[in-house]
Request: fold
Amino acid sequence: MILESEYKSRRDKVFKKLAKSSLAVIFSAETTTRSHDTHHPYRQDSNFYYLTGFKEDNAILLFIKSSTKSRTVLFVQKKEKIMELWNGKRLGVKEAKKRFLVDEVYASEDFIKIFKKYARRRKNLYYEQNVKKICVKKIAKTAKSFQTEHDILPLIQKMRLYKSASEIELIRESIAITAKAHHRVMNMRKSGIYEYNLQAEIEHEFKMNAAYSDAYISIVACGNNANTLHYIENSKALVEGELILIDAGCEHNYYASDITRTIPVNGRFSEAQRELYNLVLDTQLQIIRMIKPFVKRSHLQESAERLLTKGMVELGILSGDVKELIKKQKHKKYYPHGIGHWMGIDVHDQAPYRDAKNQEIPLQKGMVLTIEPGLYIDAKDKSVPKKYRGIGIRIEDNILVTKDGCENLSSSIAKSIEEIEMMSKN
Reply:
């Protein structure tokens, strides 16, 4: 649980980053239409939630900064009996004043009037540039009245790089639920069913544990489907002797998990599957051991590429000198993606990888990232030994950078061949 005092502390940090004589505005997410007059489930804008913890739509956060005083103003949807009858209760202005540690609270319909009042006396405007929200477009039209306009999102996103103790605990909770889901399908008899059956079991486990949404659409890819990186059709029958790549994570209390495991349909790895799987697993374990403050992600990426390429040469998938193969990017055919990404409120957390000078940001205590090496060998690729064709493997864990090294937050999820086979049913 994140306390109101922590949200206030985050807003105070934003104030310190603003120039004097400024207004800064950030809007809640808008509702999105599914079709005609039905809507997708509402999910708050991640940056707005990071600063407020408020889950309702039609809300606005306004920062007012002068040379001597700073104030935060929150605008919320006012209570209306008819709308609440159809769509549920609203917090309203009165209750928002009690809950939030802000200076003032008004109804959202009063925003334009109050914004214009303060805009006349401020030189700098911070708002969400290049974001397609109706309210943002309205604010952008007023930018001409300010001397300077800035994008507020980089200020917030840089803060999101470093997770607090409360955030880390929420990520742990999300991962714990995801662990149950992965173990659930490992324990199932999988012969004669479909990818979507496993997806249903995973999502059932999420919702039974109060994770009401996925962090992303689950990937359940059997056999050659695993060689489509963002495969989400999940419609194929599971085939004896093939592997299933399962990339699934829940969102719990707005914090994500992102886990991938690759398991056999029949509960046992073939010799070829073992060879590829252990290459990916050994690579992942070595990369995780490298993680500590001041290490750069580019170093992890280069190390993963070297390890995987060396292994592919030893298995006869590639031939030639490892350095030369990497220089010519021959390995990219089988390992085309990055070693990992930031994770937090978003599964691909909106935090920068480079600083204002375009220099890579090194790892620091409190950062959370995924580590996910993989190998993908298409069934029609006749340049590799036949026994490896049609196999796609990815292994992904969620890693916290600590003071002296790192912690694998998802280490409880079965990963070695021995663990998976022991847990699996034929």
About this structure: Residues 284 and 373 are 6 Å apart (CA to CA).
